[in-house]
Amino acid sequence: MALSVVMPALEMAQETGKLLTWLKKEGDAIVKGEPLLEIETDKAVFELEAPGDGLLAGVTSKAGDVVAVGRTIAWIVSPGEQPPIESEPAAPSARAVTPAPAPSEGSARISPKARRMAEERGVDISKIRGTGPSGTITSDDVLAAAAEPVKAPQPALTSETDGLTPIARLMAERTTQSWTQTPHFFLTRDVDAGALVEVRKVLGPAVSITDLLISIAAHIVAKHPKINASWSSGNIVFNPSVNISVAVAVKDGVVSVVIPDAANMPLADIAKRRKDLADRARAGRLRPSDIGGGTFTISNLGMFGVDAFSAIITPPQAAVLAVGRIADRVVPVNGQPGIRPMFTLTLSSDHRVVDGAQAASFLGDLAEAIQEPPK
Q1: pLDDT at 148
Q2: Rounded distance, CA 300 to CA 306, Å?
Q3: Looking at residue 185, what is its pLDDT?
Q4: Which residues are catalytically annotated?
Q5: What values do phi and psi take at 4, rounded to 5?
Q6: CA 224, CA 361: separation in Å to the nearest integer?
Q7: Which of 68, 83, 66 is nearest to 30 (CA)?
Q8: What pLDDT does 167 receive?
Q9: SS3 at position 37
Q10: What's the gap between Cα 212 and its chain centre?
C-alpha cells in the first residue's frame, strides 16, 4: 500500500515549509527512518525521515518549492505499484496544523495566524499581496505591512530587503512575545568555578564546561519541580522528565537543541549528544526531535568573553540559566584576599510559576553542586 510523504508541521503555527533538496531521487529504494529530504522552516533546516520502506515515486514538489503543511509531495510504493493519480492533502497528525478552508469569493486568501495578527495590528488585508502558496497572505506579509509607513499597496518585504533571515525574524517575534507576556524576574550569583575547572582538566577536551553544567543542573532541576514546570493555559504543568535545552549560536541566529532526560544520562553521553546536536545545528541538519520538548534552558556566553547577562525565557518553560565566563577574581578566601576562578550565573524565572524563594533555593543548591561537580 502506498505511503504518502507530506509536508509536516515541525513548529507551532507553521503554515508552510520550503523544500531545500531531495536526498533520494524518484525510483530509489527507501528504507524507513533514513533521511529523505531537507526542509527549511522559519527556525532551522530539518531532515525528514522516510515513513516506510519501498520505492520513491510520484514526486510533485522540487527543490525551492514552498509547500503548505499537510500537502502530499511524494509517495513510497511497493515494487510494481503505481502512486495514486492525484495527491490529496494527508489528514493532519497530532502535530500538524490544519490548513485554512478556502475563502469565500472576493475575499483574500489568508492563514488563520496571519488574520489574527492583522486584526491585532489593525492591518487592512485587502491591501496586502500574499507571498504564500496561491497568493496566500502569511504572517510575514502581515508583519511587513504593519511596519510599512506608506499606505499605498507595496510588495511584502523579504529577508533580502529588510536584513532579517527567517531565523532572525522568528527570534525577534518570539523574544518580544516572551518579554511582553511573561513576568520575568532575575537572580544573580557569583560562584567559585575552581572545582569545575579541575574536573574538566581531568576529563579532557571531550567534555566541556557546558556539558558539566548540563549534568549538574539537570540533577538540581529534578529536585525543584517548579523550575522544571511549564505555564500553559493559565495553569502550572509539571513535566515528568528534565529535558535541558542548550542555546547554540548558528548563522544569523540561535537554535535551542534538547538533551532529553538529562538527569538520567551519563556525563559522557551528554557530552557526545551535545556536540552532535551543535555540529548538526550549525550545518543545518537538525531533526524535529532535536529541538522539541525542552523544559529548562542553559545559555552559556562565557566563550564569547561575556561576564554576565540576563536571558529571556522560552515559553512555556519557567526558567533559563545564563552563564558568564570563568575568570580570575580577587575574593575572600578563608578571611583573606585571594584569587579564584569565578563566574556569574543569572537565573531568569517566570513569576507565574516560580516565586523568589523557590528560585533562590534552586540557585543556592546549584551553586553548591557546582563546587562539588561529578568526577
Answers
A1: 57
A2: 9
A3: 96
A4: 351, 355
A5: -85, 145
A6: 9
A7: 83
A8: 63
A9: strand
A10: 22
**Is the preceding peptide bond at 225 cis, omega within 30 degrees of 0?**
no
CA–CA separation, 206 and 285 (whole Å): 22
DSSP 80: T
What is the predicted pLDDT for the residue at 28?
92
CA-based nearest residue to 155, from 136, 141, 135: 141
CA dist 55 and 78 (Å) reads 6
Beta bridge partners of 343: 191
Return the pLDDT at 17: 83
Q: How far is CA 337 from CA 6, 136, 196, 329, 330, in A?
A: 65, 66, 21, 10, 6
* H helix or E strand, kind and range, residue 290: none
Q: In this structure, what C-alpha cell is assigned to residue 170?
A: 522568528
Is the CB of residue 9 less than 8 Å from the CB of residue 96? yes
Burial classification of residue 19, based on how many CB atoms lie within 10 Å of its CB (0-12 exposed, 13-18 middle, 19 or more buried): buried
pTM for the whole thing? 0.65
* pLDDT value at residue 14: 65
Helix (H) or strand (E) holding 227: none
pLDDT for residue 208: 95
Cβ atoms within 10 Å of 176's Cβ, excluding its own: 11
Query: Residue 161: its pLDDT value, please?
Result: 47
Phi, psi of 141 (to 5 degrees): -60, -40
* Alpha-carbon distances of 172 from 62, 147, 257, 270, 301, rounded to whole Å: 30, 14, 18, 30, 19
pLDDT of residue 370: 96
Going from the first residue of the chain to its last (375 residues), give the mean pLDDT of each consecutive group of 10, the final group possibly shorter: 82 73 91 87 76 90 87 89 63 41 48 72 78 74 67 45 61 81 95 95 94 97 96 91 93 86 96 94 82 92 95 93 97 94 97 96 97 78
Q: Which helix (H) or strand (E) covers residue 224, if one does?
A: none
Buried b vs exposed e over 107-144: b needs ≥16 C-beta within 10 Å?
Answer: ebbbbebbbebbeeeebebeebebbbbeebbbbbbbbb
